[in-house]
Write a structure and sequence with these properties.
By secondary structure, the chain is α+β, with helices and mostly antiparallel strands. Helix content is 30%, strand content 9%. It has helices at residues 44-51, 55-62, 64-70, 117-122, 127-135, 145-151, and strands at residues 75-80, 95-102. The longest helix is centred in the last third of the chain and has 9 residues, at 127-135. The two termini are 37 Å apart. This is Helitron helicase-like domain-containing protein.
Length: 152
Amino acid sequence: MCQYCRALHFLEEKLSHSSNSILMFSGCCAEGKVELLLFPDPPEQLWHLFTSESRESTHFRQRIRSYNNVLSLTSLGTTETPYQQNDGGVYSFCIKGALYHNHGPLLLEDGERPKFAQIYVHDSQDLDAQVSHRMNIFQDNALDQTILSSLT
């Protein structure tokens, strides 16, 4: 742990002039020369979703990518390489070529429901309408409307 900012490091990251009893690092705060501000505490509702063992918190963590997707301004685009099963390790998202963000027009086509940034623009004051549009993105009811409302 850095003695100045308390950042955690690997032992191999210590500076060559540090001793075994006083470990010094420069990759975080340059030995106290840079003051790193702490992140503010997240809103209480969001902290609850990340840390609680309640039904809604468990649901949120299991579907966190879906909640992130419906609240994003753009969609992700890439040419993904086919997933190959490894020896039981963690799934790796492999990309072939470039990674890019798709964003469509802010104006809606006739009869089209808003999505991504369009939701923020067309229904900027109507949070219930935003939630309704986002709930319709996943037809299998994968999202909890109460959780999505609080995140919105």
